[in-house]
Amino acid sequence: MAKDQSSRRDFMKLAAGSTLVATLGPSALEAQESRSVAPSDAIRIATIGMGGMGFGDTRTALEVPGVEFVAAADCYDGRLTRVKETFGEDVTTTRDYREILDRPDVDAVIVATPDHWHTQIAVDAMRAGKAVYLEKPMIHDLEEGPDLMEAEKETGQVLIVGSQRVSSVVYEKAGELFRAGAIGTLNMVEARYNRNSAIGAWQYSIPTDASPETVDWKRFLGNAPSRPFDPVRFFRWRNYWDYGTGVSGDLFVHLFSGIHFALGSNGPERVTATGGIRYWKDGRDAPDVMVGLFDYPETESHPPFTMSLQVDFADGSGGSQEFRFVGNEGIMTISGAGVSVSRRAAEGEPGYTIGTFSKAQQEAFLKEYRKKYPELERPNLSESGETLYRSPRGYSDRLDHFRNFFHAMRTGGKVVEDATFGYRAAAPALLCNQSYREKKILGWDPERMQRT
Predict the structure, then answer these.
(1) 101 Cβ partners below 8 Å, 6+ apart?
(2) What are phi and psi of 90, to 5 degrees?
(3) Looking at residue 388, what is its pLDDT?
(4) What is the pLDDT of residue 384?
(5) Superfamily of the domain at 29-164
(6) How far apart are CA 231 and CA 85, in angstroms?
(7) What is the location of CATH 3.40.50.720 in the chain?
(8) Most CB contacts within 10 A, which of 58, 74, 200, 435?
């Protein structure tokens, strides 16, 4: 009880009055960038996998002062042509990522390939002496996690997993509010990441020149099952288990990353998921609707709670994202570029249901009840209301994520999402897929990072 009262006081200090609107300021790393970067401190990067994420990540990385783009690899020739059109003729391009790892002028690589290549390329890159920005999910199969963590430890290279919510000032503020007791005792987390568009459902465009001549199909397949050239599988790989990790690996992992960062959690101990291909019956084998339920154990950072995650690729509302932390005294919601807290003052007394008691027993009950709950006691209405925090206009958590990555490279500091954090976010997402396919509840040890 004393802890709850202390948390309530902490929250009231954060939000004096019933309503407070604040804008979060620039990050510390952004402030440091005001200093010029010497040419000798320049970081030269290469990107492996030049699809949408590859181009987006490269552009964001180049917003950080002192970063140069020198090479790119992809299995489709058209993307390599586009690299030169976009970033200049001086950028070296190749189909073979190993040529990039052999270059002494490459300090770091961005790995933005299909998921089934993540572990192999990241491990090869670290062993070649390169720092690695590895797109989420960190792994394609659950068993790959220990291999990546071991390679990170053995080589001492900087590795950051690309789930940018762990660098977000919004999620940082959400964690601060939670620890201050903004919603009382947490018991439920609800999140949705719905879409209603063809591109949002991974119906990516296929170029007219796609052929065995312009696409290195064998290299793309890697360790995936062999099959004849198929441009749909190449350009829409997220739809297939052989190369992707479905909606859970693409979207649930963002939600896991955010909640683990905000709450200081290592993950759930029980996972179950259901769903199916409801609308996008285009040959895919990954579902377009998935709902997952997760039980989190009690830790020093948070009480036990249940989380529900939902993705729907045919949401008639137009699609939406929302993350709700539900406690006994309020709800904290992360939506868009801000976080809000709606509180309802706790009842001053529990109430009673004595209508079916005899008149004498009602009088006896009320006499004892009023000794414990004086009639004048009322809820503290000053704690009701909504608290809203917004990030600055134009703020980018992805940019802050890259700032953290390059800062760690320059200073030897730590990243916000290393391989261990990345594995703890990816594992429950992949367990969703196993639960969906096996139609059963799965156990997970979030501390030891093992199936139970």
Answers:
(1) 109, 124, 125, 128, 130
(2) -75, -15
(3) 86
(4) 62
(5) NAD(P)-binding Rossmann-like Domain (3.40.50.720)
(6) 23
(7) 29-164
(8) 74
Q: Would you state the structure tokens that stand for residue 375, as one six-digit string?
A: 């009639």
Helix (H, G, I), strand (E, B) or coil at 30: helix
Low-confidence ranges of the chain (pLDDT < 50): 1-2, 5, 16-20, 34, 377-382
Report pLDDT digits (tens) over 153-204: 999 999 999 999 999 999 999 999 999 999 999 999 999 999 999 999 999 9
C-alpha–C-alpha distance, residues 392 and 169, integer Å:
10
Write the class of the CATH domain 2-27+166-345+380-451.
alpha beta
Residue with the two structure tokens 């249901």: 353
The segment(s) of the chain belonging to CATH 3.30.360.10 are 2-27+166-345+380-451
Q: Tell me the C-alpha distance between 192 and 268, whole Å.
A: 18
Identity of residue 389: Y
SS3 content of the chain, % helix, strand, coil (to 5): 40, 20, 40
Q: Are 98 and 125 in contact (CB under 8 A)?
A: no
Tell me the two tokens of residue 326: 């539900």
Residue 19, pLDDT score: 43
Q: Which residue, 397, 402, 379, 404, is CA-closest to 339?
A: 397
The radius of gyration computed from the CA coordinates of the chain, to the nearest angstrom, equals 25
